[in-house]
Amino acid sequence: MSNLHYPQFCALARAAEIIGERWTLLIIRELLLGPKRFGDLLGHLDGMSPTLLTTRLTALIECNVVRRTALPPPANAQVYELTEIGREVQPAIRELIRWGGRFLFPPVPGDTFEPDWVLLGLDAIAKRSPVPEIRIGLEVTHGKKSAGFTVAGGGFGTAIERGITDCKGTLEAPFDAVLQIVGTSVSLQDAIDAKRASVSGSMALVRKLPLLFDLAERRRIAPAAN
After folding, report:
1. Does the keyword field hold Transcription regulation (predicted)?
2. Using one digit for the tens of pLDDT, what is the confidence trace for 19-35?
């Protein structure tokens, strides 16, 4: 079990005991993206020691938040994945990402970044109300790394899917430029002119990308809330 204990009979205190230890939320972030080998987790948690990762995973397993399982042949590798109870924390993680987004910039020198994390970041700002029925490809780059996603809109709201499929227009850009474009703080054309973004396929379709997210709306509402 976790060494963290708050002497209070409170559900929030119990939750904090489980996910409030250093690195634990980031382990859960990785597992929300899918099962991971120990080495994969360690590779995405820069600065965490193998011993501490083992300790945190053991505590999460004891709480039935994480379990060990094996990938089927030919992989035959042991991986860690969230249990049903563990996956139930995703709405809370989504809201923490939304809240933490206001503190994201400016980037801290030396911070690492994995394009795969964009899936959770975009999901946190995706609209939950009806949006245009369109599919836009998104290739997020970071140095030599990249990850592709499909942003799909419809009556259900916006969904973020891995991979780029059935998209007539695709935006390629680093994540900070993507956020500027979907938040309308920088126009698509200005980002292209600054060589911060490129579009393949339909430019008119990609211009609709901000309609699928609520980031621009939140920026407009924020000053009125002060």
Report:
1. yes
2. 999 999 999 999 999 99
CB 164 within 8 A of CB 149: yes
Domain with CATH 3.30.1050.10 in the chain: 115-212
pTM greater than 0.85 (yes/no): yes
**Can you name the CATH fold of 11-89?**
Arc Repressor Mutant, subunit A (1.10.10)
Q: How confident is the model at residue 1 (pLDDT cuts 50, 70, 90)?
A: low
**Is 136 in contact with 151 (CB distance < 8 Å)?**
yes
